[in-house]
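In this supplementary section we document a worked example of the pipeline. Step one takes a protein sequence of length 415 as its only input; no multiple sequence alignment statistics are reported here. Step two produces a three-dimensional model, which step three serialises into structure tokens for compact storage. The input and output of this example are shown verbatim.
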Amino acid sequence: MVKKFVGKTVTAIDIGTTKIVVIIAHINAQGHTEVVGIGQHPSYGLRKGVIVNIGQTVESIKCALKEAESMAGTTVETACVGISGGHIQSFNSTGVVAIKGRDVTQSDIDRVVEAAKAIPLPKDQYILHVLPQYFRVDGQEYVFDSLGMYGVRLEAQIHIITGAVASAQNIIKSCELAGVNVTDIVLEQLASAAAVLTPSEQEMGVGILDIGGGTSDFAIYKDGRIRHSKVLPIAGNHFTNDIAVGLGIPFDRAEELKKRYGSVFVDDQHANKITVDLGYDGGTKDISLKNMVEIINFRAEEIIDLFAEEINQFKLHALMPCGLVITGGGALLHDITTLASEKLNIPVRMGIPIAPAQEDAYNIPDILKSPIYATAYGLLVDASGERSMGEISTQDSALFANVMKRMKSWIYDLF
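The serialised model returned by step three reads:
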């Protein structure tokens, strides 16, 4: 039976390396947002966040959609989806223009942003997001609202995120074949940040590290704006693969052990050996949980070390007085926040979805209060219009227009 809602229905689809998550929410006339459908299915056809088999991906999306639609009693037609993978690149860029009159106008702001965007890109890359950081008016630093200010020279520093055209095309095509039109594509760490970071953390300065199945994505926020972002090539599947190879057991058994006993430090529960059913010919094997934890510790330290290298290279320590928030499935590894805090010497907490608006206007089901749903919930925040950060429109390329014709621009009225 199809339910008829009075108001607006929005959908988010998190196409991850290990799972597909679909969340359907209803926004009523009073602005109250309620999750009415949740679907989840193992993800097939992706590797390190990138679609490598469209047929398998489509079937996984269909299964997750069916579950969510059945729960919600409605049919999904459009959705906001995430994008990640090793093809994602990001950097800061600066533009400078002369102010035409005596006061900064919207035209001046548009021109300086266009100047900052005028950068050479490989033919297979396109600008996905343009996120303003700050302006300078006649050398005055950190101007966040330059409109109407008096001056002769306007500078803008923006954060540019690019992605492969082919990857975006494959995401859109997979969703279309599953019966859903894509309205927006959002970088996954931006979605996760919208889900788990508080406004005060974003204002004071904080880092977010989303350890997913195929990639680990991180970003740093300061003064409510993104300052740095990066996609790391090591994530949850690397933990599982290392366990499988190191202990000589099947991948699925290694995944089960990781979820049940996964920790970055050895404790009393890891003192004994356990017998693992190998799943073929009735074979079993005795393995050491201590050895498994040591394997996990090595990979966890590698991810944190890569994060630390990025911070040191770009001198980002001063931008993170609130420390680091770890989310994604990797955040469930026991004591990983403790390990990160010890190695980085900063506060570290686990990130779970929080309400982006007033608590009485946004209902989060208990099932979604887990770091594994951070990206999916953040995509829902985007789809529902509750985003706290935005960007300047970048949809001006004929090359990418056909690929992104259903993507809405992220426009944030900062000025």
